[in-house]
UniProtKB/TrEMBL annotation:
Protein name: Transcriptional regulator, MarR family
Transport recorded as keyword: no
PANTHER family: MARR-FAMILY TRANSCRIPTIONAL REGULATOR, TRANSCRIPTIONAL REGULATOR, MARR FAMILY
MF terms in GO: DNA binding; DNA-binding transcription factor activity
Keyword Iron-sulfur: no
Organism: Trujillonella endophytica
Domain HTH marR-type stretches: 16-147
Signal sequence extent: none
């Protein structure tokens, strides 16, 4: 799309839908590959759950259900898989001893960090010909887009900026 001509609103949304669809398909494939690097028996969805726990944990399984917008049985199955593989630990919730919180185990955190560092290096290599301002803007726009999705999952108003 050229900035020299007026922007067609419908076409802009068509392009966004197409490009996000492609991004999501590639993301699923990448998550599956990264999960296999962590452990041959790990599925791609569980990799995403482990990454969320590393970024936002410790969390209860119910928190994961809300944050990911998945059903309880799916999250339970993925958590069990991660615990069985030694990648996630369950501990008593310090605020409510009846509940459990989930955190990456030392081994899970180590493996996830190694994979993320390799992936970040790959992004840096792939985007090295982009101006740094463009990379920063892409990160900013993706963050804004993700906050919109989080607001939709929570059923709250979308953030405005």
């Amino acid at each position: 799309m050229s900035v020299d001509r007026p922007i067609d609103t419908h076409e802009a949304y068509v392009v966004v839908e197409r490009e996000i669809g492609l991004l999501l398909r590639r993301s699923r494939a990448m998550s599956t590959r990264l999960a296999r690097e962590l452990h041959p028996d790990l599925d791609g969805a569980a990799y995403g759950l482990l990454a969320l726990l590393a970024d936002a944990g410790p969390l209860r399984a119910t928190d994961l259900v809300v944050r990911l917008g998945l059903d309880k049985s799916t999250v339970s199955r993925q958590v069990s898989s991660l615990v069985d593989l030694g990648l996630v630990s369950r501990e008593a919730d310090p605020t409510d001893g009846r509940a459990q919180v989930l955190t990456p185990s030392a081994e899970g955190a180590r493996q996830l960090t190694a994979i993320r560092e390799a992936r970040r290096a790959r992004w840096e290599e792939d985007l090295s010909h982009w101006p740094v301002a463009d990379v920063a803007r892409l990160g900013e726009l993706l963050g804004r887009f993700n906050r919109l999705g989080e607001a939709q999952i929570r059923g709250t108003a979308a953030p405005t900026g």
